[in-house]
Amino acid sequence: xxxxxxxxxxAFAEHEQMLHQLGVETFxxxxxxxxxxxxxxxxxPGGESTTQSKILHELGLFEVIRKDIxxxxxxxxxxxxxxxxSPMHLGTMDIEVRRNAYGRQLGSFHTVAPVSGxxxxxxxxxxxxxxxxxxxxxxxxxxxQVDGHIVAAQQGRQLVSAFHPELxxxxxxxxxxxxxxxxQSA
Length: 186
Ligand code: GLN
Fold this sequence. Notes:
The protein contains five helices and eleven strands, in the order βαββααβαβββββββα. By secondary structure, it is an alpha/beta fold. The protein has one domain: Rossmann fold (3-Layer(aba) Sandwich), CATH 3.40.50. It is globular. The structure holds glutamine (GLN). Glutamine is lined by residues 46-49, 79-80, 83, 99-100, 127-128. Glutamine binds at residues 46-49, 79-80, 83, 99-100, 127-128.
């Protein structure tokens, strides 16, 4: 299995480390030609969603990535990656998102909460995080809520978290993504 990691900006190296720890190969997507490599899935990391979106457009990657996701390429978006998949940008996931949802005071925090199908005690690091205000389609399944706000969801082969599982020492969220790929390609 080989996972493409969007490496334009933000927290991509930590995702790669976690996947390597799980014995999975990765490659970085920094320019258009990188996208031609065979891949079983894509990770869109945290960072700054507006910047990532702008660079994707500049590189000519925005539309090809959108098409591949629409055609079933498994994708995992964390934080800014969640925003990228929402109707604000790529629009492949039916979620209404609020950016920087926790305001300045609570800009960054850590908690532990259950994630449906993954575990009861998943560590969650939030950094100027968004949350999902509502899911806009019955195909989109809510996986986790913190303080009444949706912080993880899945729609077909698309998985998103408002928090950063790559920053905690717990690989279960990434394992769930890999399992999702394996099940759907079986
Ligand atoms: N606040 C960032 C944005 O709106 C997301 C923060 C993150 O990815 N940690 O794009």
